Each structure stands twice: as structure tokens, then as C-alpha cells.
Amino acid sequence: MKHRHIVAAIGIAAAAALTLAGCSGGSGGTAFSDTTPKELSGTVSFWHFFSDREADVIQSVVDDFEKKNPKVKVDVHSGQDDEKLQKAIATGSKVDVGLSYSTDIVGNFCSNGAFRSLNKVIERDGVDMSQFSDTVKSYTEFKGTRCAMPMLADVYGLYYNTDLLQAAGYTAPPKTLSELEAMADKLTTFNADGSIKTLGFNPTMGWYENSAAHYGPAAGAEWLKDDGTSAISSSPGWSELIQWQKAYVDKIGWDKLNAFTSGLGQEFSADNAFQTGQVAMNFDGEYRTAFIADQAKGLNYGTAPFPTADDHTDLYGGGYITGNIIGISKGSKQPELAWALLKYLTTDTDAVVKLANGLKNVPTTKDALTSPELEVSDQFKTFLDISSDKNVQTTPASPLGAGYQNSFQDFWNKYQSQGGDLQAGLKDVDKQIDDALALTTGP
Hints:
Layout: H1 12-21, E1 42-47, H2 52-68, E2 72-77, H3 82-90, E3 97-100, H4 106-112, H5 119-124, H6 134-138, E4 141-142, E5 145-146, E6 149-161, H7 162-167, H8 177-187, E7 189-190, E8 196-201, H9 212-215, H10 236-252, H11 254-262, E9 279-285, H12 288-295, E10 301-304, E11 321-328, H13 335-347, H14 349-359, H15 366-369, H16 378-388, H17 403-418, H18 422-441
Parallel strand pairs: 1-2, 1-3, 8-9
Antiparallel strand pairs: 3-11, 4-5, 6-9, 6-10, 6-11, 7-8
Helix pairs in contact: 1-4, 1-17, 1-18, 2-14, 10-17, 13-14, 17-18
Signal peptide: 1-21
Organism: Leifsonia aquatica
Keywords: Signal, Sugar transport, Transport
């Protein structure tokens, strides 16, 4: 999926405003039954963000559901991004099931009731939640309310060009940030005028998949305290990562990096800089394997967990995980049909495997992960291993949605070129986040 991990395009103030407004709009929905319906019939609407080939994969699995439930018709609305989904639910449009590419809406949707609680029907129908890892379960609930279920995951790691590494004398990928930097230095080449010709690794924050959320697990960095307030300035991992990244950018040269990246292809085009060999090692998700298979068939490459900070080698093997989340609108008039479809898409092993194979995302149930029908290349297996590692991490749910991440990301994007008082800057980020949180919770 390309990419669905991207932090939702909603600022911290907008997230707070949406939370405050979310409890008003829309009409009341029909309640779940106390017992599981013996027969399902009727029409249920399903909104999702996929388009083109990926939408065809979703439709094929929906077709399977309809064959199993011949009296049910699924009205599919493809190409509906998170903003459209949120507006539709808030204004009472006919949305029964909604699929989001961002786990960041969970805290907001759970707290304001946009997605209804699934606790009752999960218990009623005996859904085996042990099929999901604790990390995956953590991004589908907020304060005890599970308002969504996971539907495939994105996992992040290191991609490396084996031909370029071997030519430089390397037989294995780096495991620490200092090893990554040393190898990248050796893999970087320059033109006669001193400009970059090929780059070992691009440390520029905000480029392709270089984000705070993806880097955080490399140093065990923490986002929020138990009370939901910001932990950014008090978590030493962030300072460590920022100082490493900033020093590396300075060593290469900010202007030189900007000049190089300005000439690189778009992330999801065939001219992706890793796919063309212009960047030897890159931070990316499992979905890149599908793009390489389609757009760069001759590329010799390997994958590995992303390197850790030098004093956190015990975390190696883990990484960042996020994914699609799917829930039932508060205004649904067909909650039982919606739940049946949602449950099929997220817990039926054949359905999950078919989705994973078609979309090239990591399945989120244990049975699907071990299914003999799951198509697994050596490069893809790395991400299955990361997803199951004890050190895999995700971003915590918050009423602010992705707002707390956006505030920190904005700071880091500026700091890498402008510098300044790092600790003071991080404390200011804390204040922005905590002030916005206070708007959602009140005094």
C-alpha cells in the first residue's frame, strides 16, 4: 500500500477542534443485538481509501464475502481518504464500515464516538483477540474502548542495494547507526564539481519515509506519558536520535543534500531513488517489495531491521509498525451487517491472506502470518519477523490524532537545517501538545 502509514493530514489544532465537534454531527445508529444474528440480509456500505489495482484486490475479497452471504449486498465506496471519511461520519452520511490508512484517528474516533465500541460484539461472538499481537491491539483501542480492528499492517526496515554494498566490500547490512553512517560514507560518490552522485543513505528528515515515528524505535524513544501528556523532552531517545541525524546532515552539508534530493524521483514512481540505485540504503516499508517487483525487476537488494542507536543494540530486530484500521460508524443503521463484514475482513484467515498477497502488506493475525498460502519472499520475510519481534513499537493513540506527531515533526524538520537550543525546542513541543490536549479534555 502506498503509503498508508503517512501521518494523517490534520494539524494539532484541527485535531483538537475535530474532537470537540465530533460528538455533535450525524444521526444516531441502530444498536447491536444481544445475540448473534442467525441470518444476514440487506445492504451495507463500505468506505475505503484504496484505488486502481489495490481497489480491485479489496473488491475481490468483498466478492468472496458476498458469496458466503448471498443475501447481503456490499455498497463499496473506493478512493475515500481519511478526510472524506471523517467528514462523512460527522455529517451523518451513510457510512456503515470505514477503513482508514491511519492508526492516528483511533484516539480521536474512540473518544468522540465516531467509531462505535466493538467490545460487546467481540465478546458476544467470541472473537479470539489473542490472534493479534499486543502492539497491533494497542493501536485499535483507546482507554479500554476498542472502536476498530486492524486490517493488515505496515512495517518499516532497511533496504540495501546488495551490488553496491558488495562493491564497497560489505557482506552484511549495518546494525547500528554508527555502522550505517560509516557504510553510507563509503558508498557515497561525488561528481567532479563536488555535488553528490550517489548517496549511501539520505538522513534528511521528511524525505520519503524518514519520519520521527519511524525512527523512534531505534532508540526506544517515547511519545506520551501515562496521562497522555507529551514525553518528548523527557525521553532521552529523541535527543539522541536528533543529535545523530543533525550531525550527519551537517557532515554531508544541508545545501548539498537539498541539491541532490531535488533531482530525485518521486517516492512512488518508477524513478524512486533506491530503485534507480541513486541511494544505496533506504528506510522503507514492506510494500516497497511490490513496487520493486513491478518497477525495478533487475534490482538486487536485501532487507533488514533498521539499525538501532549504538547504546540500544538490545532493540535490534524490532522497528515501527502501523496499519489500516477499520471501524463501524456511529450512525450505521446496519451494525450487524457492518460487523459481519468487518469481522470477515480482519479475522477470516483466507480473507486476510488474500488481502496480504494482493496488497503486499503484513497480515495481522497469527494464523495468516503462518499460513502456507501467504506469499513470502526473502525480502518480505524480514518484515514479518520485525512485526513479531518483542521490540516492535507503534505510536500511541491520543485524542489529538496525529497532532502530537505533527508538532514534533515540524520542529525536527526545521531543526535539522537551523539548529538552536535542542532542549528548549523540545520543551516548546511539549507545551504545544499539552495545550492542545487540554482543549480536548478541559481543565
